[in-house]
């Protein structure tokens, strides 16, 4: 009988209603934890330990096959042939799994050797990273807003920064240059692999769609859209690789001009590879 229904004051030796409610909640939590511990003890670590590398590779395989929505703790456990609770021996939640996926996505990046010409190294590095991203198109959205600071990501970041430090940029400029190139490659790759706004699923569907777009653009009155009409042939025919290369060349040219300007300025006293 509760205090409210009895009409009597609460005995002073009783806990308050809020305290009893909290105690019931704590008992339920303890029971749930005990149940989970029993499950984990029964499930236990697998005989063949699941390394972060194995877990990451399995998670990326699931995403490659079915997209990010297909990746769950349950599907990952099934992929590895273990019980669901086993996964929690190695990761706390799905966010940690996604961290592993973003790093595993970069595992296939074959970083080029450093070239005496930093522009060659920068271009080759960007193309290597883009190639790895395009090979895991369904997993690419996980890179947006989530840095990759696992062993593969750190290897790529350190190599990229070295390209700019070796060229003579300061530490601050090297860091900024890395982010500029990284954002360009990731954003371009994400745009390239996104089919949200393009009807159809096959390459033939996409070509047919863009052919219709081209016919429509060319039919527009040139006096009203003179600039679009003048550049339409290039807009409609340039390949995705040509567009990527053009943007990359612009980034490199901009940094090259910055480096030359600093070298010609007698007031510039920054030490190559040093901080500002």
Shape: extended
From the 3D coordinates, which CATH architecture of the domain at 118-194 and 238-264 would you assign? Orthogonal Bundle
CATH first level of the domain at 118-194 and 238-264:
Mainly Alpha
Count of extended strands = 0
For the largest beta-sheet, the strand count, sense and barrel status come to: none
How many H/I helices? 12
The helical percent reads 55-70%
Q: By helix and strand content, what is the structural category?
A: mainly alpha
Radius of gyration: 28 Å
Task: Kindly describe this structure.
Among the domains are: 52-104, Homeodomain-like (Arc Repressor Mutant, subunit A, Orthogonal Bundle), CATH 1.10.10.60; 118-194 and 238-264, Tetracycline Repressor, domain 2, CATH 1.10.357. Helix 7 (118-134) packs antiparallel against helix 12, helix 8 (151-167) crosses helix 9 (171-193) and helix 9 (171-193) packs antiparallel against helix 12 (240-264). The protein contains twelve helices and no strands. It has helices spanning 3-6, 17-43, 52-66, 73-80, 84-87, 94-104, 118-134, 151-167, 171-193, 203-219, 226-237, 240-264. With 276 residues, it is mostly helical. Helix content is 65%, strand content 0%. The N and C termini lie far apart (73 Å). The chain is extended, with a radius of gyration of 28 Å.
Topology:
Blueprint: H1 3-6, H2 17-43, H3 52-66, H4 73-80, H5 84-87, H6 94-104, H7 118-134, H8 151-167, H9 171-193, H10 203-219, H11 226-237, H12 240-264
Helix pairs in contact: 3-4, 3-6, 7-8, 7-9, 7-12, 8-9, 9-12, 10-11
């Amino acid at each position: 009988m509760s205090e409210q229904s009895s009409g009597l004051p609460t005995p002073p030796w009783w806990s308050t209603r809020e305290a009893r409610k909290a105690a019931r909640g704590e008992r339920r939590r303890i029971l749930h934890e005990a149940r989970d511990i029993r499950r984990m003890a029964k499930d236990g670590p697998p005989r063949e330990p699941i390394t972060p590398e194995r877990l990451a590779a399995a998670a990326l395989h699931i995403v490659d096959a079915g997209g990010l929505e297909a990746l769950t703790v349950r599907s990952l456990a099934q992929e590895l042939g273990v019980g669901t609770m086993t996964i929690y021996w190695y990761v706390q939640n799905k966010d940690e799994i996604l961290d592993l996926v973003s790093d595993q996505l970069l595992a296939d990046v074959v970083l080029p050797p450093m070239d005496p010409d930093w522009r060659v190294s920068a271009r080759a590095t960007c193309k290597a990273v883009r190639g790895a991203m395009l090979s895991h198109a369904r997993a690419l959205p996980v890179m947006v807003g989530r840095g990759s600071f696992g062993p593969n990501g750190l290897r790529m970041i350190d190599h990229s920064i070295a390209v700019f430090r070796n060229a003579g940029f300061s530490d601050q400029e090297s860091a900024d240059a890395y982010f500029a190139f990284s954002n360009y490659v990731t954003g371009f790759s994400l745009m390239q692999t996104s089919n949200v706004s393009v009807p159809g699923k096959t390459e033939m569907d996409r070509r047919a769609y863009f052919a219709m777009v081209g016919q429509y653009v060319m039919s527009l009155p040139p006096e009203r859209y003179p600039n679009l009409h003048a550049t339409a042939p290039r807009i409609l025919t340039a390949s995705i690789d040509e567009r990527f290369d053009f943007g990359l060349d612009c980034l490199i040219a901009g940094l090259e001009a910055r480096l030359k300007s600093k070298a010609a300025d007698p007031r510039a006293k920054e030490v190559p590879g040093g901080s500002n």
